[in-house]
Amino acid sequence: MLIVPMLDQGGLERVCAETAQLLKKEYDVHLVVFNTTGMIYDVSGVDVIDLNMGAVEGRIGKAVNVFRRVQRVGKLKKQLGIHLSYSFGPTANLVNVLSKRKDITWAGIRGYGALSSKGSMKLICSLADRVISCTRIMEQEIARCFRVKGIATLYNPCDLEGIEQLACQTVSETFQTFLKRPGKTIVSMGRAHDVKGFWHLIKSFYLVKKQVSELKLMIIGDGDYSAYEELAGALGIGDAVLFTGILQNPFSLLAKADLYALTSQSEGFPNALIEAMACGIPCISVNCKTGPAEILQENYTVCADQHKVYHADYGILMPIFQGEKNLEADSFSVEEEIFAQEMEKILTDDVLYLHYREMAVKRAKAFGTEGYFKNLVKMIEEEW
């Protein structure tokens, strides 16, 4: 049994759907989803069970909802004779460990931010038979901070062949018109959530555009971007920034960009970074916890200083951003200025650009689905 809150968008949701598709070749797979509204990921051929128990408001409502989910999932585990239950994300992990019957429970910790919920993490780690992290750094920190019965790292898979096919599809006329405008294109992907730090990206883009006038920015993802649209307008670059909304196929747009930029405050394992590299795009990323350093540097331990610039093996690692969210158009942080300088450097230095484009494609191959599947099956067989 795989357990996930939703399948609407996002990294853990994509990994869960991909895991279901891979495992159905060898096992009887049941995919439990709290609510399938807005589902965009392909789970065809998999037994999908929609609990119709989406998120609710209020502390009491949330507690009752957890109880109802636990009761329902526990019954399903018994009825279906589940041997192993693997959950993705904090809310699914809680339901998984509390609904344990005779099954082996795996709790997937997909984002570094989950570690800050000490009470929930302590409970999940104490009850789960194995905690599955998506980065080595996170595995080490979980083992140091919490008592666990077992722990392992399983890097997220990337469907390289699928991305290659989707990248060749045509894009809508609206997007084509934007892309045909003169200049190179910077791109980023993610929900309209503060953790993605998109105001840093927009401000850094503005600073680069002052030096490289013909330049465009695309931000792909779902949510309310109105505050960022206002910031771009206040900076006088509104016509140079495109907010695409959520896309079933973002790869056809990604493949037409020139540079991928990640400005997150924290990550688990940034799938979008790998996906961009698979499209042959050089990458620049803040050295946040966790994931970017392990992706962009072979020996990630040499990039431990989060306040330095590293021209790493497979991309450029940048200092983490300091301070609170700031949407003022006349205020720029030191880190935003440094980020802009490095973006300008890679966009204008042909030798550097071609080097990181070549290395991006090479690195993406290390995160293909075949290796992920082999490691996952090996871990499952260890439990029998």
Question: What does this protein structure show overall?
Answer:
- With 384 residues, the protein is α/β, with parallel strands linked by helices.
- It is 43% helix and 15% strand.
- It has helices at 11-23, 59-80, 90-98, 118-127, 136-145, 160-167, 173-179, 198-211, 226-234, 251-254, 271-278, 292-296, 334-348, 350-364, 369-383, and strands at residues 2-4, 30-33, 47-50, 84-88, 104-109, 130-133, 151-153, 184-189, 215-220, 241-245, 259-262, 283-286, 310-311, 316-318.
- Helix 4 (118-127) links the parallel strand 5 and strand 6.
- It is globular, with a radius of gyration of 21 Å.
CATH fold category name of the largest domain: Rossmann fold
Mean pLDDT: 95
**What about the largest sheet?**
7 strands, parallel
Structural class: alpha/beta
Radius of gyration: 21 Å
Strand order of the largest sheet: 3-2-1-4-5-6-7
CATH superfamily of the largest domain: Glycogen Phosphorylase B
CATH architecture of the largest domain: 3-Layer(aba) Sandwich
Q: Residue ranges: pLDDT <50 for 5 or more in a row? A: none
**Proportion in β-strands:** 15-25%
Label the overall shape: globular
Distance between the termini: 15 Å
Overall CATH class of the largest domain? Alpha Beta
Portion in helices? 40-55%
In total, the number of domains comes to 2
Q: Helix-strand pattern, N to C?
A: EHEEHEHEHEHEHHEHEHEHEHEHEEHHH
Q: Tally of extended strands? A: 14
Number of helices in the DSSP assignment: 15
